[in-house]
Amino acid sequence: MLNTARPRMGVFALAFCLGGISSQASVITFTSALPLGNLPQTVAVAGISVSAFEISKTNGMSWTNTGILNNRNEAPTELGLGVCADAHNCPATGNGSINEIDNNGSTFDAIRLDFGSVTLVHSVGLSSLDTGSKDGFAIFGSNTAQPDLSTLIPLAQGTNSSTGSETPAITLNQSLRYLFVVPEYRSTNDTGSDFLLASVDQGAATPEPWSIILVGAGLIAIGIARPAKDKVTPG
């Protein structure tokens, strides 16, 4: 009779080790993960902290965390998170002139995603409200919570030129802790950007060193447990 017990033990050891590596890939659609209407300045969803800010156009280090996140449903393809600075004039739904990621006046809006640790981000989904260059977006990444964005190179930027386009996916494939979604044009003379943050696609977490060690141990266990070819147990 062939001795099969020890090889099976090795396979079980490998299966146990592989089970220790969990995939954390996930797509978060904010329009369904969060309630419509007025939201606090910071909300937590699926392990991500989402915050709204207004940032000075002349001093990139001047962040005001009084912005109100507002998940609006103005039209079927115009869904997502915007910034509404005045809590008393922040409608629950249906007002494109107030609630969006905008750059009016002396400040521009920013929505920050805090993943809690360095995380691979595949893409970000945006929802366009209007057409034209005023809908330009810029996406920055950093491991600093409130950087001077003017010193950073955008991970992606461009123009949502399709009216009412439904969550165009902006590919990133970057590993970072903080992600910032802001208007593309942010000078003192720029106004009128209108778009929303609709979703984020996180990649699978990189295996921790201990997980890699466990897999190696499982492979070694298989090698040790594997009997010589055609070895027969006396009996």
Descriptive tags:
Jelly Rolls, 39% strand, three-stranded antiparallel sheet, nine-stranded antiparallel sheet, 235 residues, globular, alpha+beta, 2 domains
Report on this structure.
This protein is of the alpha+beta class and 235 residues long. It has 2 domains: 5-20 and 210-225; 27-203, Sandwich (Jelly Rolls), CATH 2.60.120. 15% of the residues lie in helices and 39% in strands. The protein has 3 helices and 12 strands, in the order H-E-H-E-E-E-E-E-E-E-E-E-E-E-H. The protein has helices spanning 5-19, 30-33, 209-225; strands spanning 26-29, 37-38, 42-45, 48-56, 63-64, 68-75, 78-84, 107-128, 136-142, 156-159, 169-183, 195-202. The strands form 2 sheets. Strands 1, 3, 4, 5, 8, 9, 10, 11 and 12 form a 9-stranded antiparallel beta sheet that branches. A 3-stranded antiparallel beta sheet has the order 2-6-7, with no helix packed on it. Helix 1 runs antiparallel to helix 3. The protein is globular, with a radius of gyration of 24 Å.
Write the layout of secondary structure elements.
Elements: H1 5-19, E1 26-29, H2 30-33, E2 37-38, E3 42-45, E4 48-56, E5 63-64, E6 68-75, E7 78-84, E8 107-128, E9 136-142, E10 156-159, E11 169-183, E12 195-202, H3 209-225
Antiparallel strand pairs: 1-12, 2-6, 3-4, 4-5, 4-8, 6-7, 8-11, 8-12, 9-10, 9-11
Task: Tell how many strands the DSSP assignment holds.
Answer: 12
The number of distinct helices, counting runs of at least 4 residues, comes to 3
Query: How confident overall, as mean pLDDT?
Result: 74
The helix content is 10-25%
Structural class: alpha+beta
